[in-house]
Amino acid sequence: MFAFSVFDIESLSMFDFVRKHTKIMMGLMFLLIIPSFVLFGIDGYNRFREKGDAVAKVDGLEITQAEWDVAHKNEVERVRESMPSIDVKLLDSPEARYATLERLVRDRVLAAAAGKLNLITSDVRLARDLQQNPTIAGLRRPDGSLDVDRYRQLVGSQGMTPEMFEAQVRADLSSRQVMMGLSGSGFTPLAQADVALNAFFEKREVQVARFAAADFAGKVTLTDADLEAYYKRNEAMFQAAEQASIEYVVLDLDTIKKTLVINEQDLKAYYDQNAARLGGQEERRASHILIAAPKSASAAERQKARAKADELLAAARKAPESFADLARKNSQDTGSAPNGGDLDFFARGAMVKAFEDTAFALKKGEISDVVETEFGYHIIRLTDIKAPKARSFEDMRDQLEADLKKQQAQRKFAEVADTFTNSVYEQSDSLKPVAERLKLEIKTAANLTRTPAPGTTGVLAHPKFLTAIFAPDAVDKKRNTEAVETAANQLVSGRIVQYTPARTKPFAEVKDIVRTRLVAERGAELARKEGESKLAAWRANPAGADLPAAVVVSRDQTQQQPTKLIEAALRANAASLPAFAGVDLGAQGYAVVRVNKIVPREAATEAAKRQNLSQYSQLWSTAESQAYFNLLKERFKTQILVAKPATGAGGAQSVAIQ
């Protein structure tokens, strides 16, 4: 197998944790989608480090708000490019932004550890990684050599020189070594796995009586005095946040692009320079015969494999039409041998270098000499060539214009940004001058609060901009905010038009809400008292328990029962069954569960056993890696200085078991 890819695996330890923390897993999936190596220019990196408050610290070094913003902007763009249909709101949510910060912190911790452990990436390892990079592979000429000018243009668009880019790749490779030794050495004894898996999949027969809070709502009687007393005890629940109606202007690349006009001569010159790259890559189809001989094999074994390859080469050249049969009978590449050695079409960058260079040097129908790679000895037969379809200037005109506008807008942004920053400060009583000068649209927003409303995205959800809008100077004097950097190549300034301070809503305004909340609270209390009463009676007289029909539950078959109830049933002492447990479900009410017996786990198929063992081993290995990473965080005094977004709220729940 010769296609290369890098998988950055993130998961959580143990099946039970995964089941109970679905939202955390969603956050980790987001981390999986986004590659850990975030490309942004070194010059830009240094410039942004000078701006913004610290949002995290690792080994005494700060991660600033600006760095966080830039990293998230770049990661969002990457995800959108790879998944165009993804909902952008998911990418710009507080949870997604926090996931980016956690990724930045993780990268900094691993980089610090790599430095302390003297983990150095050799020139050979760096060269191999760059050769396998699909983006760089796309910059190769038909003869296989690298187009250095296009390479410089690629890394230059990120604000880097080739030396800077390669230094970042080297640092990233060194960081990966920190965890590789631990993650690759995990081992789970079969006996240990069986104990854990049997406990996880254990089933119990239960009977459940539910006392829903809603069923007791009709028994709740409230007076106006009760409502007013509840309102006074909980005034904080009935606060109207401060609000502002604002106008604001945004300067970004899209704004600049609208002012640019690309002339025909520049478009045609760009087409001449990039037609081959934009038109696609040449692909080749080949079949091969592999005689395996890994580098770890002895000299005698490799010599024997080479002799076998020479023998097959002679046979193939004597009868080229028999190549497929020779591959089926002799090739040790189990993936392609059944297909006569066919590898289908591939472009440059998909195969190891020696194999690729040979395949792209052959003519259609030719058979190569014996080719040595890290996998062994190959005999290659080129079966087809798929040349990229040439696209005319007119076909590519829109794409060419978009590319040129993007490049020119990036170059122009710096000078326009200075004008924007100075204008909103020097003429702070209005946004009209800067809007007219730079041809910006003055936008408006009503009822803006310090905390973005659910679903709000873009600059109106950005914490730095909201902080600036509600700063004393902006509130009291209605002045323009400073130019706030809300993303890479994006500045925004706003001013308050109308301001309403925070206040406690009057009782008359929220009376219905007060009633609803107090009824729910009292109903849950009545449900709990009724449930506790039944629990005591049934424990005293189990035969008199009036319970629904029994069902069999387990962690993976909950029968739509609440998680707390399943936990209570599985924690009941198996030595004294039947057993009763009471479960406080908070706002949902109360439940009583009777555990009758343990139901043996069904025998799994061999395939299921292997799958479960593999998953358990992987999760156990990940748990060990996570524990090691947590130790590294402590060692390097890691701090995240911003609050983690709330993923949901719930009242305290208790479980009584006997």
Characterise this structure:
This protein has 658 residues and is of the alpha+beta class. It folds into four domains: 15-188 and 633-640, Porin chaperone SurA, peptide-binding domain (Triger factor/SurA peptide-binding fold), CATH 1.10.4030.10; 203-235 and 508-599, no CATH class; 243-267 and 393-501, no CATH class; 282-386, Chitinase A, domain 3 (Roll). It contains 24 helices and 18 strands. The strands form five sheets. It has a five-stranded antiparallel β-sheet with strand order 14-3-16-15-18, with helices on both faces. It has a four-stranded antiparallel β-sheet with strand order 10-5-12-11, sandwiched between helices. It starts with 14 loop residues before the first helix and ends with a strand. Residues 1-51 and 648-658 have low confidence and may be disordered.
